[in-house]
Amino acid sequence: MDQDRELGDLREQVRVVTADIIRDVQKRMELARQIGEIKNRKGIEVKDERVEQDIRKMVLAISSQTGMKPDFALRLLNILLEESESVQAQGRQPPQKQTHLGIFMKAKQLEASGKEMIHLEVGEPDYPPPSAVGNSLSESFRLRRYHYTETRGIAKLREAIAKKENVTEDRLIVTPGGRFAVFSAIVSLLEPGNELIVLDPAWPAYKECADFAGARTRVLKTRFEDSWTPDLGMLEDMINPATKMIVLNYPNNPTGKILENKSVEKIVSLAKDNDLYVLSDEVYAAYSYGKQFQSVLEFDYEKTIMVSSFSKRYAMTGFRVGYGVADPRVIQQLNKIQAAGITSVAEPMQYAALAAIGEDHRDNVKIMKERLDYVCKRLKEMSIRFVSPDGALYVFPELPDIDDLELVDKLLERGVAVAPGSGFGDSYKNYIRISACQPLEILAKALDKTSVVLEEHA
Q1: Contact between residue 385 and residue 454 where contact means Cβ atoms under 8 Å apart
Q2: Which of 125, 157, 357, 396 lies at 20 to 30 Å from 139 by C-alpha?
Q3: Is the pLDDT of residue 97 over 80?
Q4: Which pLDDT value is given to residue 366?
Q5: Residue 430 within a domain
C-alpha cells in the first residue's frame, strides 16, 4: 500500500508540473504575440537568428546543470520557436513567394489560354530518352511486365545501379524520382524538433520535407561574392545537439556550383565528428563541365545517403525513377516509408530505367554545355553578373535593380517563363534561375525578350 501511495503522489506531482508547463508555454506565446506586434510596427522580420542562438546557449547551459539530455532540450526549444514564429506572423501580410513549380503552373495556364510560352523555369531536357527506353516500354507490354514489384525495386535494376555506383545491392532502393528518396530520408530519420542544415541557394524541397516531418531547417547562406562557396567555419558553428542532418545539393540547383573535394571532405568530417547524417542530392552529377564531380559515396561514411535519378541524365523526367544509396539499416527505413506510401515504382518504368542505364549520355552533356555557354555569352553582352556554372542545367544571374518576381511577371507577359531566385532561398530575390533546357534558337528568342524587358525597366 505504501508503494501505491507513493506512486499516486508521484503521478499527482507529474500532473501539477504538466499543468505548470502548459500555463508557462501559454505565457510564452502571449509574450511572443506582443513581440510580434512590436516587430510588425517597426517593420522587423519575425525570424532573428541571433536571438535564437542566445536562447540555444541558455537552454544548453540549463540542460547541463539539470542533467537533461541536450538534444531533447533543444528539440523542445525548436518546437517552441516554431510556434513563436507562427504567433508573431499572425496579422502580417504573408511575403510574396513563388517557386519554379508555381511559375511553371502559371505558364501552363497561360499556354492553355492560347499564349505561346518559352519554358526556362524548369529543368526538363527537351531531347528524348535513349531509343532503348521506348523499345523497353513496348516490350514490357508484350511480356506483361506491368505488375507490383518488390518495394525496393526489381532485382535486375538494383543490381545494375549497384554496379554503376560501386556499392552492394543491399544498400540501394529504387524510388519514384529522386524527390521521393529525399522525402523518405528526411521523414524517416528526423523527429519533430530535430534540425537539418541546408546550404542556400538550394532546391526548396528539402525545407518542405523537413516541415512535413516537424523538423527545423537552418540555413547556411552562400554568396555570389564568394562564388557560392560555403563558409565551413560558419557551418561548424551552426551544429548543435539538435542537429541531425546536413543536406548537400551539388552540382547545385540553381547555381551550377560544384564544391571542391576538400570542402566536401571537411563537411563529411564535421558530420562524422558530430554523428550527423549527410544527405547528398546528386541528380545533376552527370552534368559537370571541366570540374570533376566527386560523389559523397567516395568518402565512405556510413551515415551518408546519396540520391540520384534517371530524370536529368537520360531525359526521363516523366518516368519518375530515382534511387537512394545508404547503409542497409537506413535503406530499411526508407523502404518502410515507400511500402506505406506507394508500394513500388511502376514495373514498366523500372525496366525502362534498366534499358537506359547502359546508354551513352555524353551527347546530352555536350548539348547542355553548348547551351549554357550561349546563355552565359548573352548575359555578358547584357552586362549582367553571374558565376559560370560548373555543372547542372542552369545559370543564376544577379538582377540589375529589379525584383525577381517583378521581372518574372514581366517576362510571363512576353511569353517567357523563368524561375525567381527567392524560390531557392529568402536572400536571393535579386536573382533568377535560367534553365538551358531548350534549343539554341529558342534560348536566343527568350534572351532577346529578356534584354528588351531589362532595357525598358532601366
Answers
A1: no
A2: 125
A3: no
A4: 96
A5: yes
**Torsion region of 242: left, alpha or beta (phi above 0 gives left; psi -120 to 50 gives alpha):** alpha
Amino acid at 42: K
Phi, psi of 179 (to 5 degrees): -60, -40
What φ, ψ does residue 76 adopt, rounded to 5°?
-60, -45
Instruction: State pLDDT tens for residues 246-304.
Output: 999 999 999 999 999 999 999 999 999 999 999 999 999 999 998 889 999 999 999 99
Same domain, 312 and 380: no
Strand-pair category, 304-309 with 277-281: parallel
- Rounded distance between C-alpha atoms, residue 288 and residue 322, angstroms: 19
State the residue range of the domain holding 53: 35-94
Contact assessment for residue 133 and residue 352, using Cβ atoms and an 8 Å cutoff: yes
Domain boundary among 356, 383, 399: 356
Cis amide linkage into residue 397, ω under 30° from 0: no
CB under 8 Å to 326, separation ≥6 — which residues?
171, 185, 304, 305, 306, 334
Q: Is 157 exposed, middle or buried (0-12, 13-18, 19+ CB in 10 A)?
A: buried
Which of 356, 377, 407 is at the close of a domain?
356
Please say whether the beta carbons of 221 and 425 come within 8 A: yes
Q: Average per-residue pLDDT in the chain?
A: 93
Q: Closest by alpha carbon to 208, among 99, 46, 74?
A: 99
Please report whether residue 30 resides in a domain.
no
Helix (H, G, I), strand (E, B) or coil at 432: strand
In a domain, 23, yes or no: no
pLDDT at 158 over 90: yes
In a shared domain, residues 327 and 373: no
Its pTM stands at 0.89
| CA distance linking residue 375 with residue 433, whole number of Å | 11
- pLDDT value of position 175: 98
Output the furthest CA–CA distance in the chain (Å, rounded).
88
The number of distinct structural domains making up the chain is: 3
- Three-state secondary-structure class, residue 245: strand
78-82, 215-219, 417-421: lowest mean pLDDT where? 78-82
Q: How many CB atoms lie within 10 A of CB 167?
A: 15
pLDDT digit string, tens, across residues 294-332: 999 999 999 999 999 999 999 999 999 999 999 999 999
Cell readout for 159 is 543490381
Rounded Cα distance, 51 and 117, in Å: 46
pLDDT tens, residue by residue, 394-449: 999 999 988 999 999 999 999 999 999 999 998 999 999 999 999 999 999 999 99
